Amino acid sequence: MADITSSILNALLSTSNIKSIGKESGAATADVKKVLTSALPSLLQGASAQASGTSTAAGFLQALSSHASDKPGAIDLSDGAKILSHLLGSKATSTTNAIAKESGVDKATVKSILAAAAPLLLSVLGQQTNASSSNSNAVAAILSGVVSSNMGSLLAGFLGGGTSSQSGTSVKPGSQSSSGKTGSDLAGVAAGLLGSLLK
Predict the structure, then answer these.
(1) DSSP string of 34-95?
(2) pTM for the predicted model, two decimal places
């Protein structure tokens, strides 16, 4: 599970993807980094919920398979907004507000960054989980592992040490409906990975 987790985060937070998100959203690279650091826990939790939901699993698997073949740099903001509505559900507004407050980035920019990041997230997840050849249960199991509270310890070696020294990662929007520790843990991991990949 450590391998798939690190692969997902490495791919999603690559320098090229960060630049693409910034270009499409019109946001500065620094703002993209801050927003993704705060948003990643909620986005991954939302993906896991979609993958395991009895009424959403089939559609989510189809979406992953479709986006897995997306061309690099091809981001559809309208599609991204729709993806966000599925991942965040009724908590979209409160989550966006929390991310804006935590990151210090205005709400409009946060929305644009998330809309640009969402298709990339599905593309990465589709590729890394082999969604086109997997069943929904397999994908759900992978994503459940990715958002588990053990994620920080699984990636400690990969990140070259703990991430507890990272600041500005206390917001855990996804924890409003589920596990608070999961959101906090993922935020710390995301911050550490952003710091190591995007110097």
Answers:
(1) HHHHHHHHHHHHHHHHHHH-TTTHHHHHHHHHHHTTPPTT---HHHHHHHHHHHHGGGHHHH
(2) 0.73
